[in-house]
Amino acid sequence: EVQLVESGGGLIQPGGSLRLSCAASGFTVSSNYMSWVRQAPGKGLEWVSVIYSGGSTYYADSVKGRFTISRDNSKNTLYLQMNSLRAEDTAVYYCARERSCSGGSCYSGFDYWGQGTLVTVSS
Amino acid sequence: DIQMTQSPSSLSASVGDRVTITCRASQSISSYLNWYQQKPGKAPKLLIYATSSLQSGVPSRFSGSGSGTDFTLIISSLQPEDFATYYCQQSYSTPRTFGQGTKLEIK
């Protein structure tokens, strides 16, 4: 059974750092495109970052230079290192899988999502 | 970046109604268009991928159509559990982008 379980969220002061984890089971993280998607309170879905199966990484302009996506193949886990956090980064963060991908396009959509982890940036 | 525009932003309907939600992309995305349903406090759930393919376990009252820049999600006969927020999303290019959402409420 495919499962994604996020952890690492919490309350952090502006300017602080946090690392989110997404532990996967039932499939191999490194064989798929894996993304982070966030949702601010009462708002819509915003894509944050992706790591391709080949290892290329991409970021939304709003987090570029502050967030880093990575994976540990031995642990089958996806990470999001978040530095220089701002109040506007407050959101529920989801990890999500895409498959059947080629050249940046994916046929499957985000077919599995984690339960989400809440990040609150506030003093 | 590809902009995704959904309409309407909100919709009131009754059980048994046929509902249509539209999504327009700012440039052609071929058939790389997906639809999600989200209920309060829950992760989004994939309903339709690649414009018209029904995700496993999703009821057949949900269907999708379109190509290029214009896409449609249809719920043929609304059920009580369908009242939720719906998002379209393109998986043609990075950055991935979502529509702003359509909140479907009970009339």
- State the helicity of chain B in percent bands: under 10%
How much of the sequence lies in strands of chain B comes to over 45%
Shape descriptor of chain B? globular
Specify the number of helices of chain B: 0
Number of strands of chain B: 11
* Counted beta strands of chain A: 13
Q: Please compute the radius of gyration of chain B using only Cα atoms.
A: 13 Å
End-to-end separation of chain B: 36 Å
Helical fraction of chain A: under 10%
Query: What is the molecular shape of chain A?
Result: globular
Structural class given helices, strands, pairing of chain B? mainly beta
End-to-end separation of chain A: 40 Å
Layout of secondary structure:
The complex is a heterodimer of chains A (123) and B (107).
Chain A: E1 3-7, E2 10-12, E3 18-25, E4 33-39, E5 45-51, E6 57-59, E7 67-72, E8 77-82, E9 91-98, E10 101-102, E11 105-106, E12 112-113, E13 117-121
Parallel strand pairs in A: 2-13
Antiparallel strand pairs in A: 1-3, 3-8, 4-5, 4-9, 5-6, 7-8, 9-12, 9-13, 10-11
Chain B: E1 4-7, E2 10-13, E3 19-25, E4 33-38, E5 45-49, E6 53-54, E7 62-67, E8 70-75, E9 85-90, E10 97-98, E11 102-106
Parallel strand pairs in B: 2-11
Antiparallel strand pairs in B: 1-3, 3-8, 4-5, 4-9, 5-6, 7-8, 9-10, 9-11
Describe this structure in words.
The complex is a heterodimer of chains A (123) and B (107). Chain A is mostly beta strands. Chain A is 0% helix and 52% strand. Chain A contains no helices and 13 strands. Chain A has strands spanning 3-7, 10-12, 18-25, 33-39, 45-51, 57-59, 67-72, 77-82, 91-98, 101-102, 105-106, 112-113, 117-121. In chain A, a hairpin with a 5-residue loop joins strand 5 (45-51) and strand 6. Chain B is mainly β. In chain B, strands 2, 4, 5, 6, 9, 10 and 11 form a seven-stranded mixed β-sheet that branches. In chain B, strands 1-3-8-7 form a four-stranded antiparallel β-sheet, with no helix packed on it. In chain B, strand 7 (62-67) and strand 8 form a beta hairpin. Chain B is globular, with a radius of gyration of 13 Å. At the A-B interface, strand 5 and strand 11 of A face strand 4, strand 5 and strand 10 of B.
